[in-house]
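pinned: reference chain
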Amino acid sequence: MTSVVVAGVDLGASSGRVMVGRVGPGELQLTEANRFATEPVRVRSTLHWDILALYRGVLDGLRAAGAGAGRLDGVGIDTWAVDYGLLDSTGALLGNPVHYRDARTEGVMDKVLAEVPVQDLYATTGLHMLPINTVYQLVAAAGSPQLTAARRLLLIPDLLVYWLTGVERAEITNASTTQLLDVRRRTWSTELTERLGIDGGLLPPVCEPGERIGELTGPALEATGLRGDVPVIAVGSHDTASAVAGVPADGSRFAYISSGTWSLVGVELDQPVLTDESRQANFTNELGVDGTVRYLRNVMGLWLLQESLRSWRIAGVAADLEVLLRDAAEVPAFSAVIDPDDPAFLAPGDLPARIADACERLGQPRPESPPHTVRCILDSLALAYRRAVAQVQRLSGRAVDVVHVVGGGARNGLLCQLTADACGLPVVAGPVEATALGNVLVQARALGAAPGTLGELRRLIRDTHRLQVYRPRPDERAWQAAGSRLGRTAV
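pinned: its structure tokens
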């Protein structure tokens, strides 16, 4: 087994990065080559992704990665889910992709469910009912000039791969988030596309993580300064799929929280859970690396904190995160709690005001300062995690002994401790860069430089990365009382 150097391109909803991974026997190192913002742009009334700026960030990162490492043996790309670009018959992009937080899908879910009953939709796709899902975006775009002229639809990571290689594919972990994939057959559902009037010919062939998609084209090599045949390898191109592959778990009795702009709370299974109870709880069955199923629930996540910080800075209010977290730790617990998944929090804007309004509607005091708002957010997230971890065990039949928190939230010590307290389970925090680690490990394994099973890949992470353990300080009555304010128990 030889060592390899690969580039893991990891684009999140707020920032993107290109990481250099060095992987070999007993070796797993990450170095950041480039980091850049992934902020949306509003043009008139529509919220878009600045996809060319993102692609430039990828090219610049690959150039820096190659220059720093001396060579690249592979490239893999993961991003957020559901959003897409449309190509015309010449392969040209038909406009900037629309952001999932755009308002165009409001009310569209009801239109879809009038054509395909919710029970049928869940039985086929196993996916939760979120208005941002690709299927609702496509129905919202029906009849538009762009969709009418389109020959191919490519999800964001697949679009970037296409620009690098000229090859059109749909990597399956991200394809499973569209609500157009048959989760049991692992293929596009022609029945769904036909019933909804969606042109199934827009959807490219599906590929699995670890497949070699193609090589960097001449223009891509010139733009990045790279030389030779540089393969682009399919990874878990939905960033959560790569993050779960990068969870340093030992065994199967674990829950994970991929904690970033969104929080994805769930377990890893071999088969989907398609019961009506699962559907009613809004749990989702997304496909993972090595034929696994990511059985999870979406929670609004650190978006609440990120957008609050942005609002305070715009208003000229001091908003240093480290100071706010320190001060929030001194605020009495459960001064106020909210439902993080309230649709009122989905769109950008003045979230502190919306949070205060939600507290008032629930008969609680409005947070009186930024630290009180931060404590409200963190208590509420921990409460949502508690409920999701309890539900996922009951619905899946998989018992959990430990909760792994990976991603940016692993840095938030207060949130991690509150999560341990809320769940009554130890929390293992880290690695922060689990998504990039999952990305580069799948590449390295495909190139013969990493061990073969997910368990072995995870052991390599445990052996090479420092993790922080938070022990629970359970106070069952307090958490149950806080949950009852939202009209539910904690479970």
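why pinned: The chain has 19 helices and 21 strands. The longest strand covers residues 27-37.
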